[in-house]
């Protein structure tokens, strides 16, 4: 089990950032100094957080998208952050590999690969390329994936899915090998995403909460072998969250319902699967879930492989 981006149990998180407005107030030397300071803080916090995760036997973690400040914005176009922080990337990558940690990333909701607007597609490819570059610089294998949704329906699902497949081919090869696609809670169902992934040859991330929000009545367990198959030799990734309430079902709850979690993972008993918990209480929710499962007599010791 892992969590997304922010630890609520520690104060150091690798998501420090600055704004375009703040940077634009500075002259070029001061601008670079500001960007460097933010990124150095993020590297310091990343190492601190990874050590905390290892101490608590958490070996799956989603890196915040803002790790490199303004990485894809023109204001930072002249900044060669990859070269300047090469030693830091090497150090962090060695730690991640030596401790069997798997990182993932989830590019922002403004990155829409099936967009019919050239400017949005261009920005999306730049964003995906940035995320892939970070994982490449860390020296991480293909288990470090970039999770994305299909995108908009644009009044025609078939065309929107076809456009995703077509635009996917425009991605650089180092990005293609990391992209995985997740079913969402309003537009594209588990089955539709699975068929797309099989079509273009990429893994599918099953989000069980999204499936419960939006489906055509399919029994997800019947599709499980096909979902697992899309991952090949890689470790499948899945997402788990609990609804905030019956009236606000799509929103994520603070914690994970232990009974719902047990029901979910019981169907996964024959597989080795990474599960990112998406909930407001982040790592605290993960540790709380472990305690609740132990009370039920369920072994929850973490391990790497």
Automatic annotation (TrEMBL):
It comes from the Bacteria. InterPro entries: UvdE (IPR004601), Xyl_isomerase-like_sf (IPR036237). One of its GO terms (biological process) is nucleotide-excision repair. Gene3D superfamilies: Divalent-metal-dependent TIM barrel enzymes (3.20.20.150). Keywords: DNA damage, DNA excision, DNA repair, Endonuclease, Hydrolase, Nuclease. The keyword Hydrolase applies. The keyword Zinc does not apply. GO terms for molecular function: endonuclease activity; hydrolase activity. Pfam families: UvdE (PF03851). This is Probable UV DNA damage endonuclease. The gene is uvsE.
């Amino acid at each position: 089990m892992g969590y997304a981006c922010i630890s609520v149990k520690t104060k150091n998180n690798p998501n420090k950032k600055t704004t375009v407005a703040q940077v634009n107030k500075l002259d070029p030397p001061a601008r670079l100094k500001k960007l460097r300071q933010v990124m150095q803080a993020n590297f310091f916090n990343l190492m601190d957080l990874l050590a905390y995760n290892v101490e608590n036997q958490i070996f799956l973690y989603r890196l915040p998208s803002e790790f490199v400040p303004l990485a894809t914005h023109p204001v930072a176009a002249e900044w060669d952050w990859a070269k300047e922080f090469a030693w830091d990337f090497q150090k962090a990558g060695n730690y991640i590999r030596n401790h069997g940690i798997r990182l993932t990333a989830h590019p922002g909701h403004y990155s829409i690969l099936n967009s019919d607007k050239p400017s949005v597609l261009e920005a999306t490819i730049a964003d995906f390329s940035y995320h892939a570059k970070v994982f490449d610089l860390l020296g991480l294998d293909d288990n470090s994936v970039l999770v994305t949704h299909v995108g908009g329906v644009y009044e025609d699902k078939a065309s929107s899915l076809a456009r995703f497949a077509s635009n996917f081919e425009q991605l650089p090869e180092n990005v293609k090998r990391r992209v995985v696609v997740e079913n969402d809670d309003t537009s594209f169902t588990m089955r539709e995403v699975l068929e797309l992934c099989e079509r273009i040859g990429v893994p599918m991330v099953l989000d069980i909460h999204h499936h419960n929000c939006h489906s055509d009545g399919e029994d997800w367990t019947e599709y499980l072998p096909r979902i697992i198959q899309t991952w090949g030799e890689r470790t499948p990734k899945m997402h788990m969250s609990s609804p905030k309430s019956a009236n606000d079902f799509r929103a994520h709850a603070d914690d994970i319902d232990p009974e719902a979690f047990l029901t979910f993972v019981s169907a996964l008993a024959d597989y080795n699967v990474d599960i990112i918990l998406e909930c407001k209480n982040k790592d605290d929710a993960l540790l709380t879930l472990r305690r609740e499962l132990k009370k039920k007599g369920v072994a929850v010791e973490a391990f790497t492989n």
